[in-house]
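User: Look at the shape:
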Amino acid sequence: MARHRRLVVYALFEAEEKGITQKNLDEMAKSEAPYQSACLGATPGMARRGPRREMGLQRNQGGRHYGEIFDKHLGLGSPLKIERGYNNLWTKGGLIYAMPIR
């Protein structure tokens, strides 16, 4: 079960890195880019296990990525108004890094 939770978190990080948001989720699933359609479960047989499956599940659960969830519950969109700081993607000066999907 712990592995499953880890994969869900990695899928949230991956979605944020790839720019998959709640607003563009359906559009990204229809994309011609094989990686995006596979990750979001649009390519048959590609989302059976691992993070790709989790991203496919994410599509069915509202499609938020890590940054959107952080902002809603802890960040600027919440009463707490906490800055992301080290909780940001590594490309934006934080420590969050999506593990490679094989």
